[in-house]
Amino acid sequence: MIDLDDTVVCGYFHSLVGEEGMKVIRNMPEGEVTDEEISTVTEVMLNAVRRTLFFLYENRLASYRRERDTNSGWLTYLWRVDLSPLDSLLEDERKKLLANLEKRLLFEEENMFYTCKNECGRCFFGDAAELDFVCPKCGEKLMHHDNEEVIKVIKKRILKLNPKDVNNDPDTTIA
Ligand SMILES: [Zn+2]
């Protein structure tokens, strides 16, 4: 089952279909429906519904069946959304995000940073020494920057992305 509140799932869809598209995906009726029905149920403009359906179709997350009215000759498209192929795709996305965060964490843990009291920017110790520990922007003294908060945030995000079988409570896992 695809969890639409999951950070990775949300991020994935949001970047591709935007807020309106998310609304369509979240409130999509079960079974076969026309785009107009989807628009009514989700309260999203027909154009945005069609855009979203097309995106889902392109990514094999939606399919349609055409039906022809024998009297009028009108064609009706009956849509069905199935997000289950997304699982493997999201696993890749999750791994990519995790790898990035772990790289970032290592960078934060292995380096010593310097900044001024206005936090104009951050630099390495070597660069700070070269600047005689004076901020090139505001002229304030450069001091050691405590990045413990940053590290804590990154660790929390890593925990959030990790599978649910590990201890997933950031408050008890992070000292
Ligand atoms: Zn400064």
UniProtKB/TrEMBL annotation:
The keyword Protease does not apply. Keywords: DNA-binding, Transcription, Transcription regulation. InterPro entries: TF_E_archaea, TFIIE/TFIIEa_HTH, TFIIE_asu, TFIIEa/SarR/Rpc3_HTH_dom, WH-like_DNA-bd_sf, WH_DNA-bd_sf. One of its GO terms (biological process) is transcription initiation at RNA polymerase II promoter. It comes from the Archaea. Transcription factor that plays a role in the activation of archaeal genes transcribed by RNA polymerase. Facilitates transcription initiation by enhancing TATA-box recognition by TATA-box-binding protein (Tbp), and transcription factor B (Tfb) and RNA polymerase recruitment. Not absolutely required for transcription in vitro, but particularly important in cases where Tbp or Tfb function is not optimal. It dynamically alters the nucleic acid-binding properties of RNA polymerases by stabilizing the initiation complex and destabilizing elongation complexes. Monomer. Interaction with RNA polymerase subunits RpoF and RpoE is necessary for Tfe stimulatory transcription activity. Able to interact with Tbp and RNA polymerase in the absence of DNA promoter. Interacts both with the preinitiation and elongation complexes. This is Transcription factor E. The gene is tfe.
